[in-house]
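Need tokens for this chain, all 483 residues.
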Amino acid sequence: MCHEKREAARRQPASRTLALILLALFIAFAGGPVHAEDPHAGSPLYDPLSHPLSTETSIAPLIPQLNEFKQALIDLGYNFQVNYTGEGLGNPVGGAQQSAAYEGLLELGIDGDLNRIAGLKGASFHINAFQIHGYGLTTNNIYNFATISGIEARRTMRLFEAWVEQELLDGLASIRFGQLTADSEFLANELDVLYWNGTFGWPVLTSFDMSGTGPHYPLTTPGIRLKITPNKQTAFYIALFNGDPAGVGQDVAQTETKNCCGINFRLKDPPLVMGQADFAYVLPIGEQGLTGKFRVGGWYSFDTFNDQFVATDGLPLADPASNGIPVVHRGNQAAYALMDQMIWKHPGEDPWRGIGFFALAMAAPPVQNLISFEFQFGVNFMGLWDARPHDSFGVAIDYSRVSPNVASFDRVAAAFSEIPVPIRDDELLLEATYQAQIVPGLFIQPDFQYVFHPGGGAIDPLNPFVGRIPDAAVFGLRTVVKF
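Here are the structure tokens for all 483 residues:
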């Protein structure tokens, strides 16, 4: 499955077949009547890529026989799920090169209630896997930090999550163990799920500063997580992961290749510890109040990390006279804070319908990291039009600052280079998107992104004599089908 020649031989037929499947589903269901009302479908925050898979929004009610079959399995304790996300996108302006592309993600999953299945009270399990296909603009065209699409990844069939969870002390706590992803619970805003870009969900800083990009899509790793919920407004998380999903350190380019199918189950890498505290509240403004959530957390890796500027002989790494061997630092860490806040509430019962913003700030030491600071901010307009109560529109930015030590490396390299070497500084991403629910379980989402200083203002890898990678504009259309 992971052999490059076999993969290349079937790449185009697989993409065409899945595209036809997506088109057929769209034609079949886009104009169909809604036969059953989904009690949760009013939430404009529905995330078609959330994990574990949700049963709140589905096309199953449109097909009575399938809905009855699905419900019968749920009654037995099994919730089988199939989701497909397909998107066409392109960058007509900027980047190292311009092209149009198609990429898709087929997700198969099962949630199990072990109380119904085996009489184990408070126990459950979750397994899901992906078939990933298509052409990614960040990897092939733009070479920017913030991955243009959250589903962009190496073409393959991949196991993702496989875990068991047990509630303890009548729901006061729970423990989860197995093959885990961190981005389902850590660094997870409520409102950033609307956006295409991968940094809204797993920030650029974590992808580039953690070993093996950290435990997130498309890579998971063995781990154990403890959650304590003293009340409905407060939750505390602590998790221990194998620290490197692929065993490649900070070599981002090799991460997915070295763990091509998600079945390495690495256990011997230095550990990664993550901790987070969540606080929910309601501001006493207006008749119903304004909902908000605040999260604070951090992570620490016990792995080793190379210095970004100094060699072991004391000279700058970019100095031709140095031995080129970076100083090695043991350990790495980062701290972060996240916030979701409604600023206007639409009349009705849904606490997240109206206008709200989200924000994230994260910092890491500059000595051993490519990215030393990241900031995100977005404003969402959710269900404002009564005729389209499930639609959302949003505008968001992500700012990633290159470590000062990396900029110092570039300055030294520029002094010895025969061609111009740009000094990397920061990358700024702007995204505007609109998510429209056609029927429950079917979403259409046009999207626009503009990338300033791709790669922090890095040199163009395809045209090095030109200088920096040009700023890029990206247009796209995503379709999500969920059963």
